[in-house]
Each structure stands twice: as C-alpha cells, then as structure tokens.
Amino acid sequence: MNTRMRRTAVAVAAGAMAVSLAACGSAKEAGGGTKESSGAAKGDAIKVGLLLPENQTARYEKFDKPLIEKQVKALTNGKGEVVYANAKQDATTQNSQIDTMITNKVDVLIVDAVDSKAIAGSVKKAKDAGIPVVAYDRLAEGPIDAYTSFDNEEVGKVQGKALLEALGDKAKDGQIVMMNGSVTDPNAALFKKGAHSVLDGKVNVGKEYDTVEWKPENANTNMAGALSALGKDKVIGVYSANDGMAGGIITALKAAGLSPLPPVTGQDAELAGVQRIVAGEQFMSVYKPYAPEAEAAAKMAVALAKGEKAGGTSTVDSPSAKGVASVLIPVVSLTKNNIKDTVVKDGVYTVDEICTDKYAAACAAIGLK
C-alpha cells in the first residue's frame, strides 16, 4: 500500500473509531444481540472471503479492498489471508462466488451485496457451513452476524440540506429532479428517505427516478428525459444520490445548454466528483471515511473467524435478522470550502491529483494549493 493509502487508513481510522457512534433507523444501543461464531477458536492463520459488488464506483477497488486487506494482516500478525471476488453488479455471479468460497472453506465472509434480498439464500448456506457473515456497507438479508456501514439515512439528510442551502430563497421557484440509487441496494432507500425528510414541503419535485444499477449512463438518460418533460428552464436543482450518477446528470445538463448549471448533489467523494466541485459544476458530495468502515469490518470478521464475539457499538435489525452487532460511521458534507480539511488532510487525494492542468485555475480561485 502506498504512503497516501497508509495515511488514509491510520489518520481517518484512529479518529473515527475512537468515537461512540450513533446508529440510524432501527439501531439500538450496544449490549444486546452481539453474536458469536459457532466455529472452534482459531489462531491467526485465517482465511477471510471478501465479496464486493461492483467495479464502476471507484471506491471499491481503490479504497475498500486494500484497506480491508491491510487491516486483516495487521490483526493477524501477517498470517491472515483475504480471498477476493468482485461481482461486477451481477447478483447471480455473487451468489456463485459465495458458493465457491464455502467450497474453499473460508473462515468468515465479508459481503457487500449486489442485491440485499437475493443474497439471503447464500448467507444461509454460509451459516449452515459454519461460516459467519459480516454485511459490509449494505445490510444484506439472511442470518448475518455483524454489519458495518455509514449512517445512510443521515447521508440523504446531508445531501438534502446541502441542496436547500444551494437553492436558498429560490427553492420553490422551479422544480428539482431526484435521481435515487438502485432499488436492489437497501442503502439507496435510506438515502432517499433521508433526503425526502429534508426536502419534502420545501421544494417541488418534478421528476424522481430509481436508477437501474446506479449506472451513470442510466442517470444521464433519465435526466435528459426529465429536462424534456419539465422544460430545461424549470429545473433549478438535482438531487443525485452519488457522484457517478452526478457525472451523467451534469453531462445531460450541459448537452441541454443549461448555463449556469443548477446545483447537483453527490456522494462518495470520487476524484472526478471532487474536481467537478472545484470547477463549480457539482455543488457537493458526501465524504465517507472508508478507513474506519474497513477497519470495523476487518475487526468483526477476524473476531468471528476466531470464534469470538463480533463486538460493535450498536445493534441494527434487518428484515430477517434482529440485534445484529453493528458499527455505523459518521459522514461529512464535502463542498469546495472544506476539500483541504477533508479528503486532502486525510490523504485520500493530493492537491496535485485534484488540481491537474484542467482544474489549476479553479483550484487557485478557492485557495487549494
């Protein structure tokens, strides 16, 4: 792992994991419901199966995978092994990958589900084989043992508040478009719920979409359709659930000739999203410190693999499991005003990475150097 990634893992994790974290939704205080692996106690030579959902969003390959690998090594004196698979947004593929890992007798699974419902049968298979399961980032259904993610309803609230801030006293002068995530992702429903709790009654929602597979090209198509249906001059803002879709949305806005662009939200603090914020094309993103999330998942997985309690700072309920030991990580609204104090300070990106020749003037204008 390079120096920048090490700074991310150490600097962000050390601060965030020391805080007592608040859970969202049906979360309850820590204490009850912490589960214990039924397997025999193991040493450090454990095998952790890591299944991530897709590779279109930059975070999974760039942050989550290497951070989890690093933490597993650190927690097992270098003896733990991470077996990795990426489902590339295919739920059937992910179920097959879990079958393979069960056959290969991994000691624990960390699963970021493509489809939270479709994964339930495979989670049960793993449990029946004596393999505990940590749901990562998305609350998978089935008999999971632990869960770590961000306060996802709060993510939507942060996005909604930022959009209202950008609209100011013009919030009801036109209509906004809401571009939510995929219905197969339970987090998308929480983002949407949080955003609506802030926006309802304060803006007029002209069009709203649940974007198939979170794909930027689908968001682009939806946005073009919304502009055609509503009239481009009537659209005063766009709620976008993540940065990838924001890119597709902004492309559609530019193609329609909107200038200046209406404020567009985002999430994940992807490099392209941060650069669009610098350039004034995207109003904000949600910075989610991946290091503490990865650290929590690794700690829970290693503990369960060794036959110990998962731990956690709270518990949550899924539709099929109650009192699941959980860690939920706080998030930060990222705008041009705090890029230096968030993603740069935490070592996620360097100023040079953000401020390429294309963005040099815009960076200078906001004092990013």
Described by strand count, sense and barrel closure, the largest sheet is: 8 strands, mixed
**How much helix, percentage-wise, in residues?**
40-55%
Shape: globular
Sheet with the most strands: spatial strand order: 1-11-12-6-5-4-2-3
Oligomerization state: single chain
What is the averaged pLDDT score?
90
Question: Roughly what fraction of the amino acids lie in strands?
Answer: 15-25%
**What is the gyration radius calculated from CA atoms?**
21 Å
Uncertain spans: 1-40
Q: Cα distance, first to last residue?
A: 25 Å
What does this structure look like?
The chain is α/β, with parallel strands linked by helices and 369 residues long. The chain has 13 helices and 13 strands. The protein has helices spanning 3-16, 58-75, 91-103, 120-128, 152-167, 186-199, 216-230, 243-255, 271-279, 290-305, 340-344, 351-354, 360-365; strands at 28-29, 47-52, 81-86, 108-111, 133-136, 146-150, 175-180, 205-210, 235-240, 285-287, 314-316, 324-329, 332-334. The strands form three sheets. An eight-stranded mixed beta sheet has the order 1-11-12-6-5-4-2-3, sandwiched between helices. Helix 4 links the parallel strand 4 (108-111) and strand 5. The protein is globular and about 60 Å long.
